[in-house]
TrEMBL record:
Any one Pfam family match given in the protein's UniProt record, by short name: FUR
GO biological process assignments: negative regulation of DNA-templated transcription; regulation of secondary metabolite biosynthetic process
Entry similarity comment: Belongs to the Fur family.
CDD domains, alphabetized: Fur_like
Matching PANTHER family: FERRIC UPTAKE REGULATION PROTEIN, ZINC UPTAKE REGULATION PROTEIN
Keywords: DNA-binding, Metal-binding, Repressor, Transcription, Transcription regulation, Zinc
Keyword presence, Phosphoprotein: no
Name recorded for this polypeptide: Transcriptional repressor
Cofactor: Zn(2+)
InterPro entries: FUR (IPR002481), Fur_C (IPR043135), WH-like_DNA-bd_sf (IPR036388), WH_DNA-bd_sf (IPR036390)
Bound cofactor: record note: Binds 1 zinc ion per subunit.
Amino acid sequence: MRQSEDSPAVAEAVQLLRAKGERVTVARRAVLQVLDGANGHLCAEEIAACVDDAEPGVHRATVYRSLQSLAELGIVAHTHVPNSATIYHLRHSAGAPVGHAHLQCATCERFFDIPADWLAPLAQRVRDGLGFELEAQHAALLGTCADCRAR
C-alpha cells in the first residue's frame, strides 16, 4: 500500500513517527496497516503472517522489532493475556478507542474492550492502599462472559 492510500489512522501514526524523528520503514507501515485493518486483537504471529501476505520481503524478525519499537513509542498498544500470546492494536485506530482495557472470557476466550475509566475506582483504591500505579490497558482481566454463563 502506498502512502497516499493510508487510512486516516495509519497516516496519523506515520505523522507521529516522523514527529518523533523516527523512520517510516516498509515494515513499520505494513504493521500499522495490518493493525488498522484488524477486526479484533492480533498476536505478533498473526501480525507477522498478515505482513508477509502484504509485503513478502519483510522478515518475521523485523515485524517483531517493529512491534516492539512502535509500542515503546506509544503508537501501538500491547496487552498481556494470561496463558496466551500478547495482543496488539493501533492506539489511533477508530476501532480501538484510546484508553481502553480488556476483559477475556476464560471459557470461550473472546475479548471485550471496556473504557479504562470503568476501572478508575479500582485503580484509585490500589493507588491509595498500596501505592501501586495500575496500568489496566496492559493486562486482560479474566472472567466468564454472559453467553458462557447462560450455557
